[in-house]
Amino acid sequence: MASAMSRRGGGKIRAPRRGLNGADVDFQTTWIVLETAFREIHTKNASALSFEELYRNAYKLVLKKQGEELYKRVAEFEEQWLGSTVRKEIVQTLSAPLMVNEGAGRTLATANERRQAGEKFLRRLKQSWEDHQVCMGMLTDVLMYMDRVYCTDHRQPSIFAKSMGLFRDQILRTPLSQHQPNLLDVLTRIILDQIQMDRDGENIDPFLIKSNVYMLEGLYESDVEAEDDKLYLKSFELEFLQQSAEFYREEGARLLKESDAGTYCRHAKRRIDEENDRCRSTLTESTSPKIVRVVEDELIRNKMKGLIEMESGVAFMVDNEKLHELNLVFDLEARVDPKKPELTRAMQKIIAEMGTNINNAAIAASEAPQVQTEAPAAEEDDGKARTASVKPLNQQTAAALKWVEEILALKDRFDNICKESFKTQSVDQALSTAINRSMADVINAFSRGSEYISLFIDDNMKRGIKDKTEAEVDLMLEKAIMVLRYLQDKDIFETYYKKHLCKRLLLKKSVSVEVEKQMISRMKVELGNSFTLKFEAMFKDMTLSEELSNGYKKHAAGVADLNDSKGIELSIKVLTSMTWPLEAFRSGIEGDNDGIRPQIIYPPAIRRVKEGFERFYSQKHSGRKLTWHNNMGDALLKARFPHSKATVHDVECSTYAMLILLLFEDLPNGSTLSFEEIEAATNIPLDDLKRNLQSLAVAPKTRFLVKTPMSREIKPGDRFRYNENFVSNVRRIRVGVVSAGNKVEGDRERKETEKKNNEDRKFQIEAAIVRIMKQRKELAHAQLLTETLTQLSHQFKPDVNMIKKRIEGLIEREYLERMDEAPVPSYRYLA
Amino acid sequence: MNDLTEYVTLISSDDFSYVVLRSTACISPIIRRMLDPSNGFMEASTNTVHFDNINGIVLEKVCEYFYYNEKNKDAKDVADPDFPTELCLELLMAADYLDV
Q1: Which candidate in B52, B88, B89 is best for mutational testing of the A interface (most A CBs within 10 A)?
Q2: Does B77 touch chain A (CB under 8 A)?
Q3: What integer is the mean pLDDT of B34-54?
C-alpha cells in the first residue's frame, strides 16, 4: 500500500511518506488547513474552499490512523465555536422581559413585550440552529471519510451527531450563569408562553415555534440517538402537556361555573380542534394525540359528570330539544369512552324521571275525579249531571289515553334524539338499548300500563281511526305495538284487550273490522300465535254468528209460526263462553247473585222469536246450551210520536229498554206504570232497570217516558207514562246506554282482574314447571327457576315467590319430589 | 441557485480532464457532495473537481466504471467490467476514496 501511495501520490503526500515520524507535524499543518476552512464555513465563506482539498486532507489523516485525533479536534473546535460565538449571540437576545418573568411574575412585562422579546429569542435560536445544521452538514460532508472509516470502526457517533450533542450541551444545557436556568428551560418556557398567548387569542408566529420545536425534535437526550429519547419528548412535551392539563383543568372548572352546557361543549370541541391545529402548525404531529388526550381528560372525562348534571346540562337539552347540543355532548363523550357511561346514565335518568312524571300524572288524573264523582256517579239527571257523569268516565279514559300518548311522545322524542344526536343506527347500539330499557322500565313501573294500552287501542278503534288514511292507521297500530313490545305483563294486557275487544265487537263500536284484524295480526307477529288465539276465536264467532243469523232468517221465512211476529228480525251472536270475557258486562252488583240469572219476561212476540231461534239452533248443533245475555243486546224499534217532526222515529236502544218501551205500546194514552209494575212485568235486574229508565225518562234527548215525580233519581214508587209530546229533529234516535263504553276499571274491578290474572298465572307457571321437569326429569332449583322465567318471559314476568309456591304445590300433589341426596336443592319429576 | 449543468468536469492530478454526465459522477457520494450547490464549495460553483491524488489513468477507469454502472443500473447478472490487473491496487484506493 505504501508503495502504491508513493507511486501515485502528488508531491504533497510524498514528503510525509518518506519520513514516517513526521506524521505529527503533518497532522498539525493539515489540521490548521482544516480548521481555517471550518472557520470559513461557519462564517459562510465556503465558496472559496475546495471540497476536494479538505476531503483529501481529512482522508489522509484518517488513513494515517490519526482519525481519533482529528475527531477530537473537530469536536473541540465545534465546542469552542458554539460555546463562545454562537452562545453569546443567543444570550444577547434574552432581553429583560424574558428574564423577569422567571421569578417575579408575568405582570411586569406586558404580553406584547413578552411576545416580541420571545420571538426575537426564538428567531435567533432558530437562526443559530439552522446555521449550525448547515455548517455541520458541510463539515460532515468534508469529513465523510472520517465518519465512514473512523467512526464506524471505533463506534463513535458520527461527527454530525456529535456536534448536535455539542449544540445541545453548549447552547441549551449550559446555564446562563450560576443559579439560572439553562437555555433549554428558557426556550421551553418561552414556547409555552407563546402557546398560552395563542390560546388566549393573540397572534403568534407558529412557524417560528415550529422550527424551534423542530430543533428540539432533532436533538436527543444523550448521544445514543434512540427514537424515544428525543429532547423534544423528554423535556418539552412533558412540560407542555402538564401545563396544558393545568390550563384546561382551570378553564374547564371556570366554564362549568360560568356558562351553559351547550357552550361548554362547543368550547371543548373547539379547543380540541385548536390543539390539533396547533400541533400541526406550531408543534409536531406526534404530540397531537397526546395533547388531545390531555384536553379530553381535562375538559371531558373529568368534567363529563358535572357537565351532564349542569343546570343547562343534558336534561335541559332534552327538555328544549337541543338536538345539536346533545350531539355535541355525545361526540365529546364518544371521544373519551366509546361506551359513554355518563351520558347513558343521564339519559336513563331523564327517561325515568319523565316517565315517572307521566305515570304520576296519569295516576293523579285517574284518581282525582274518582273521589269527586263517587257520589253523583250513580244518579245522573239532565244537564249538569250529565256532564258530570260523562266527564268522570271519560276523565279516567282520558287519563289512560293521555298516558299512552305521552309515553309514545316520550318514546318518539328519544328516538328522535337517538337518531339526530346520537346517530344510533350506525354508531351506538349500547346507548339506544339503554334508552329502550329505560322506556321499558318506565312502562312497566306503571301498574295500569296494560290496561291503559288496551284502552288506547280501544279508543283508537272506536273513534281515532275514523277519518284517517291508511298510513295514519298503520302508524297508530305501529305505535301501539311499540309500547306493547315494552310491556312485561303481556298476559294482563291480553285479558284487558280481550275484554275491550269483546265490547267493541258486540256493541259494534269498532270502526273497521279490517283494522282490528290488522292489529291482531300485528300482535301475532310480535307476540306469537298463542297470544292472539283467543282474539281470533272471537272474530270467528262473530262470522259464524252472522251466518247463523242469516240461516235463521231463511229458516224463519219458511216457518209460518214465526212469520207472523210482526216483522221482527233477529240478529244473534252465538259466542263461545270460554273465549269471551262476558263477565266484563256484568256489573259488580250483579256479580253477587252469580249464576242465578233472573228469568226475563219477554213480550209474546219477542218470546216467539226467541224460542224459534232456540229450536233452530238446537237442530243445527245438538247438545249445546244457549244462554241469553239480554244485557248485551240491542234493538231497533219504530215509535210514533205525534208532535215530533217525523212522526215515526227509529229508536235504537238496549234490549232492556226495548222491553220497557214495549210495555207502553199497548197502554192507553195517559195511563201510567209504576216502577214496581215495570219490574214485575219484565223481570229486568234492578240495577239495569234503573239505568234504562234513566235514559228513557231522564236524558233530555231520549225522553220517551214521563216520570212523576220529576227528579233525577229513579226510585221505587215512581210512575211513568208515555210522553206524547216528545219532539226530535232526527229520525233515528239512539238511546244512550249508560256505561257502555270502555273505561278504566274501578278499584274493585281491578282487584278482581288482578286476582283472576294471578290465578291464570299460577296455572301458567305450573304448566311451565311441569313442561320443564318432564323434559329434564331432574333439575336443580336455581336452574328450574331460570328456565321457568325464560319460558314465561314472553307472557309476563313471574314473581319468584310465586314460582316457589307453585313448586311447593306441585310437590304436594306429587308431581315432583325433592332430591335428598343432591348437593344443591333439586327436584325430580314423578311420572 | 444556479441550474445544474448536465455535465461536470473531473480533472486528474496530471491534468487530464474528463467530462462526464453529472448523474453518473454522482454515484460517488463524495463527488455528489462536492458538487452539491447547497454546500457552496468551490467545486459546486465551477462544476469542476480536481483530484490531486488520482492520476489520469486511474480516473479514466473510474469514469469508465461510472458509465458502466449507469448503463447496468437496472440489469442483473452483468459481466464484471474489465480492469487491467496492474491498476487494481490503485483503483481500489480510488474506490475507497470516492466511496464507490
Answers
A1: B52
A2: no
A3: 75
Cβ pair A12:B52 closer than 8 A: yes
Which residues of chain A are under the pLDDT cut of 50? Answer: 1-25, 100-108, 369-393, 424-427, 562-565, 586-596, 739-743
Contact check, Cβ <8 Å, A50/B99: no
The answer to whether residues A753 and A670 belong to one domain is: no
- Cα of A146 to nearest chain B Cα, Å: 11
Cβ contacts from A onto B, under 8 A: 70
CA dist A830 and A816 (Å) reads 5
Q: Rounded to a whole number, what is the largest CA-CA distance in chain B?
A: 43
pLDDT tens, residue by residue, A450-482:
777 777 777 777 666 566 667 777 777 777 777
Would you say residue A573 lies in a domain?
A: no
Q: Are residues A287 and A177 part of one domain?
A: no
B90 touches chain A (CB under 8 A): yes
Alpha carbon distance A181, A177 (integer Å): 8
A295 to chain B, closest Cα gap in Å: 42
Asked if B41 lies within 8 A of A49 by C-beta distance, the reply is: yes
Q: How many domains does chain A have?
A: 5
**Chain A residue whose CA is closest to B14:** A10
Domain carrying residue A447: 341-533
Q: Does B13 touch chain A (CB under 8 A)?
A: yes
Residues 19-38 of B with CB under 8 A from A: 29-30, 33-34, 36, 38
Residue B62 C-alpha, separation from nearest chain A C-alpha, in angstroms:
15
Other C-beta atoms closer than 10 Å to the C-beta of A635 total 20
Identify whether the C-beta of residue A816 lies closer than 8 Å to the C-beta of residue A803: no
Nearest to A13 by CA among A51, A62, A57, A55: A57
Q: What is the pLDDT of residue A823?
A: 77
Which of these, A394, A385, A495, lies nearest to A742 by C-alpha position?
A394
* DSSP letter assigned to residue A182: B
Cross-chain CB nearest to B42 (options A47, A144, A145) = A47
Does the beta-carbon distance from A8 to B53 stay under 8 Å? yes
pLDDT digits (tens, 9 = 90+) for A176-224: 555 556 666 777 777 777 777 777 766 767 677 777 777 776 676 665 5
Interchain pair A47, B90: CB under 8 A? no
The answer to whether A54 touches B43, Cβ cutoff 8 Å, is no
Residue A817 sits in a domain whose CATH number is 1.10.10.10
A8 and B90: CB-CB below 8 Å?
A: yes
Burial A730-744 (b: 16+ CB within 10 A, else e): eeebebbbbeebbbb
Q: What per-residue confidence (pLDDT) applies to A543?
A: 79
**Residue range B38-48: mean pLDDT, rounded:** 73
Q: What is the mean pLDDT of chain A?
A: 68
ipTM of this complex: 0.79
B49: contact with A, CB 8 A cutoff:
yes
pLDDT at A715: 74
Q: At what angle do helices A261-281 and A323-336 cross, to 10 degrees?
A: 50
pLDDT at A578: 63
Does a structural domain hold residue B1?
no
A48 CB neighbours in chain B (<8 A) are: 42
> Structural domain tally of chain B?
1
CA-angle at A361, arms to A356 and A367, nearest 5°: 125
Q: What is the pLDDT of residue A271?
A: 76
For the packed helices A206-218 and A183-199, what is the interaxial angle rounded to 10 degrees? 140
B2 inside domain: no
B53/A148 CB distance under 8 A:
no
- Whether A615 maps to a domain, the answer reads no
Q: What backbone torsions phi and psi does residue A488 show, to the nearest 5 degrees?
A: -90, -45
Interface test with B, best of A38, A52, A151 (most B CBs within 10 A): A52
- Tell me, what CATH number does B69's domain have? 3.30.710.10
